[in-house]
Amino acid sequence: WWQMRRLMEKSLSRSQTRYDVPGTKRRTDYDYLIVGAGFGGSVLAERLARGLDKRVLVIDRRPHIGGNAYDFHNEDGLLVHKYGPHIFHTNSEKVFRYLSDFTRWRPYEHRVLAQVDGMLVPMPINLTTLGMLYGREFTSDDAVQFLAARAERLDHIKTSEDIVVSTVGRELYEKFFRGYTRKQWGLDPSELNKSVAARIPTRTSLDDRYFTDSIQCMPLHGYTRMFENMLSHPNITVATGTGFNDIGTSINYDHLIYCGPIDEFFDYRYGRLPYRSLEFRHVTLGQQRFQPVGVVNFPGEDVPYTRITEYKHLTGQQHRKTSITYEIPCAEGDPYYPVPRPENFERFHKYLRLGDATPRVTFVGRLATYRYYNMDQVVAQALTVYARIAELDAKQQLP
Ligand code: FAD
Ligand code: UDP
Fold it and tell me: Which residue intervals define the domain UDP-galactopyranose mutase C-terminal in the entry (predicted)?
């Protein structure tokens, strides 16, 4: 069934006037039009179709489903994440249980090394990192004292620079954070909200995992397969290669769920919301292994990329070749990261007020709600939106 739909999608994307293909009605009625087939859009499509028996059309301007989590097998058969490494981690049993209806999982705990002082050392900074950098053993107590002696006392912790220098001091800040952040965001950490660098803890233990969430794993057959399973419901029609503007008035729908950039939705009325972009340089190498862990970070400003991912660590795939991706941050391109700065949030809130005043439209996801969300947070947000819709729907259906 899925293959049949893929064929239909292909013919739709070839035809350009996609709802004009033979056998398709000129005007089509849906309860919901969902813009964006990433986590936000796909969770809502699945819930509305299965949970409330709604007819749903999901569109995405990209030629595939899955949003930024899309993965694919490249010409050598290696599973690659098209938009950079996506590692699933959550503390939410509810989110995990929900997604487990659509995929089995492989256990995976993410580990990252950073290239600092000519060595590959564990990141987040932990006892091993300190030991390697300073050439001596650290106990937990040693590390607490060592960091406390270097940490700068600040009255107000507002920026990403503040949060790091007040925890580990300036030397470690400069080695691990300043260059990486300047490359990643095109801004100095002193110009970015503390929430950005606060994502990375400092540990006075030997725990060298990147995340400490209670649930950490990867979809066994990849993210795209999981999305295919979510969207394979007879009430759901998927049209990839279709932008919201392509739809025009050819489709009737009662309600819109919009997972694209909110400023674009309102024709940039209050100006553009900044998003940071990335270039992904995918390379396949004729060797089994390239690096010791899934991701190596490069905080130095001598190279333009921030990190290299080797997917086989994440996917567990056995293959005689290996596939890696360099991430090179840039200003222009697809919007990936909302930029957490007070003036951007102010502008976003103006858009949010417009959104609140726009009937029959709900904004969901990382771009539409301008939040630096992980996958599980978007799933949680979509499930919350669904619960609200289901509640309203139930009320309307009361006699
Ligand atoms: P998206 O996945 O961005 O989906 C939105 C979709 O809407 C896109 O496919 C877009 O093409 C489509 N769209 C937008 N506008 C229109 C329009 N006008 N018409 C039609 N379609 C439109 N999270 C984790 O939990 N773990 C990780 O390891 C992780 N790594 C990441 C690495 C990178 C490089 C990036 C950029 C993000 C990472 N994330 C990670 C975050 C994760 O990608 C997001 O939380 C999640 O994909 C957001 O889902 P979404 O549905 O909100 O948005
Ligand atoms: N960061 C850093 N050095 C690192 C890793 C992260 O300075 O080696 C900072 C940087 O500002 C980055 C932020 O911490 O944008 C969050 O890192 P994370 O790995 O969570 O970024 P993501 O995976 O979301 O791109």
Answer: 175-372
Mean pLDDT of 22-50: 85
Structural domain contains residue 204: no
Is position 233 within any domain?
A: yes
28 and 130, same structural domain? no
Residue 301 lies inside a defined structural domain of this protein = no
Quick one: pLDDT at residue 27?
Answer: 52
Say how many domains are in the chain.
Answer: 2
Indicate whether residue 114 lines ligand 2 (CB < 6 A): yes
Index of the ligand 2 atom closest to the CA of residue 196: 13
Per DSSP, helices labelled H in 151-291 are 160-168, 170-172, 179-185, 194-197, 223-231, 244-247, 262-265
Same domain, 247 and 127: no
Cα-to-centroid distance, 359 and ligand 2 (Å): 37
- Residue 125 CA: which ligand is closest? 2
Q: In the prediction, which pLDDT does 28 show?
A: 63
What CATH number does the domain containing 251 carry?
A: 3.40.50.720
Q: Which two tokens stand for residue 344?
A: 């951007």
> Ligand 2: which of 181, 190, 278, 375 to mutate, most ligand atoms within 8 Å of CB?
181
For residues 38-53, give the mean pLDDT: 98
Q: Is 27 exposed, middle or buried (0-12, 13-18, 19+ CB in 10 A)?
A: exposed
What residue owns the CA closest to ligand 2's atom 11?
Answer: 181
Same domain for 18 and 143? Answer: no
Helix axes 39-46, 375-396, angle to 10 degrees: 30
Tell me how far CA of residue 342 lies from CA of 48, 56, 194, in angstroms.
35, 36, 11
If one residue of 184, 191, 211, 213 were mutated to test the ligand 2 pocket, choosing by the most ligand atoms within 8 A of its CB, it would be 184
For residue 257 and ligand 2, the question of a CB distance below 6 A is answered with no
Same domain flag for 193 and 242 = no
- The pLDDT tens digits for 123-146 are 999 999 999 999 999 999 999 999
Is the pTM above the cut of 0.90? Answer: yes
Parent domain of 243: 2-70+220-273+338-396
pLDDT band, very low/low/confident/very high, at 248 (cuts 50, 70, 90) = confident
**Domain identity same for 140 and 185:** yes
Output the CA 386–ligand 1 centroid distance in Å: 19
**Spatial CA neighbour of 389 closest among 45, 38, 98, 96:** 45
Residue 318: closest CA among 76, 53, 38: 76
Do 191 and 224 sit in the same domain of this protein? Answer: no
Question: Does residue 344 form part of some domain?
Answer: yes
Could you tell me the distance, in angstroms and rounded to a whole number, from the CA of residue 63 to the centre of ligand 1? 14
pLDDT tens digits, 285-336: 999 999 999 999 999 999 999 999 999 999 999 999 999 999 999 999 999 9
